[in-house]
Design goal:
The chain is mostly helical and 65 residues long. Helix content is 85%, strand content 0%. The chain has a domain at 17-50. The chain crosses the membrane at residues 12-34.
Length: 65
């Protein structure tokens, strides 16, 4: 193994590590953005249609009191 081959292996491992870390953060960033987006859409739908998310038992409890 020459010094050039060792240098290439070290360089490739560093590039692979940086690529893996970058993809990890991109993936978690996209998951966080989509989770936030779905939460906003759920709140918007709940605001537009308030009776859609009410439990059936909660409506009858108010009527009985």
């Amino acid at each position: 193994m020459t010094m050039e081959m060792v240098n290439q292996l070290i360089d490739a491992s560093i590039r692979g590590t940086l690529l893996g870390i970058s993809l990890f953060f991109w993936g978690f960033g996209l998951v966080a953005i989509w989770k936030w987006f779905f939460g906003v859409m759920k709140r918007l739908i709940g605001w537009l249609f308030p009776n859609l998310f009410k439990k059936k038992g909660a409506a009858t409890d108010k009527e009985n009191k």
